[in-house]
Amino acid sequence: MALTTRLARPQRWDRPFDPGMTAADLEQLKLDPVVAAIDADAFPGTIPLDGILANDSRVIHYKAGEIVVREGDYGNSAFLIMSGACDVVVNPPLTDAQLGRQTEAPASIGRAISQLWKRTVVPEVRDVSRYGNIAVTETDHQAVFLQDYGVVLGGRSLPRLGAQQMFGELAALGRTPRAASVVCVEDAEVLEIRWQGLRELRRFDAGWRRQIDTNYRANALISHLQDTPLFDGLPDEALQSIADATLFETYGSFDWSSSFQRTNSDARLGTEPVIAREGEYPDGLLLIRAGFGRVSVRQGAAERTLTYLSAGDYFGLSELYAGFKGGGSPMEATLRAVGYVDALRVPTKVLEEHVFPRMNKAPDSFLQFAARPLADDSLQEWAIEERFINGTMAMLIDLDKCVRCDDCVRACASTHGGNPRFVRHGKINDHWMVANACMHCSDPVCMIGCPTGAIHRTQAGGSVVINDDSCIGCGTCANSCPYNNIRLVEIRDLSGAPVQDEATGQPIRKATKCDLCAGIPGGPACERACPHGALQRVNF
Hints:
Strands 10, 11, 12, 13, 14 and 15 form a six-stranded antiparallel β-sheet that branches. β17 (423-429) and β18 (432-436) form a beta hairpin. The longest helix has 22 residues, at 206-227. α7 packs across α8 (206-227) and α8 packs across α9 (236-245). By secondary structure, the chain is an alpha+beta fold. The chain folds into three domains: 32-100 and 144-227, Sandwich (Jelly Rolls), CATH 2.60.120.10; 232-363, Jelly Rolls (Sandwich), CATH 2.60.120; 387-538, Alpha-Beta Plaits. The protein starts with a strand and ends with a strand.
């Protein structure tokens, strides 16, 4: 009979955010006014408030001049200042050198060669002694100081955050890069909450939900307006006036993957919520803050997709400007939410006061795309219907060049413990195939339900990766991925023996997917191994 290794099946809170937090630390944390105001009775027994505080939060002591978050980094947590003060640095932003960034050098040849010695004939080998003994590495606190911060920040008019103020929740909940850098201007005690705990606090406590939603709306509006070329050059007073009048709207489902998987591609357009409809009169400009929108026009009994919009794009400008110049103008096209859309609606009156008087020509109309031949629509329609527009590093294979040699598969397997991290098949349009490999999406819905934060974005590049140590094999990410690009594998210990749950005898599994060959010189092995140049990673 084959030998097996037995261990307790991993659970969500096996790996606390702060492994050193004691019961006394927890009681001290609960004395903070913001934390003390939380209604513990509102939380279910399976997710108690004490459990969230003890496992999904940690208290960090920052020194004056220390950078808490850096603009552009991807973060998985939010921050609550318990004492001290921090400045929010937006314009002008800090330089990469000031933020302590450096270009990540590829792994050395020596490291690559050393991996050869570690390969075994048994796939998915793990050092199981690591599980339960290692802190969450992707969120470890590493101090980065802004040198001469008093000189660098001196003379700037910066928003200052003090005790009981929160920041970072927008990036944590929205899976987006940090919008600004935050620097401590005096010693500060800060509560950091990873996004799983933040999600539960927002869900069960009305006060936190109200505060988070208020911050989300206010900060998203100002930030987005500042980044939109249409409002470039407007004075702060005008921007504030626009922000005060602008409405924050959401369409579709934040967790849109389940309905996507149940719907045939031919029927998906009919399930997409309408944001603005062709033929109706607009009542404001729609700015896309997050997600994707489909622009289409009626053509006979069907709809023709003209283009799609993503973060930073806007809809309805040409019609509103035509109305400003004289006479109403109905919508020339329909805008639908592809999955989930955050939109800002700027009222017409505000545009006529602050924006249109500065414009010296009419904006382009989406109908310009209707002039192209229908045959040119195929690839775009396919990419939108299948949501491949979400992919930033999709594996695209030219079937006219591919000879089905499987060198790409073998190269992937050889660098990932004996099992490839993708499957060389997928949806096909003409001679192009999108293989079943992680696309490192701009909207990674796989991250939404992960109970431990094991699946997350890397802070530097924003790639979607899985921390094997904190993955509990629940399969939530695999079930949530709209493209079936995450798989659960049964693991073995260093001797090659299967690893089983000590309570049930069932195999212990871990989630795996493409990690873009992180740490491997030269980038993804699949792409380098293709002898005919048939495979490439593309941003749709």
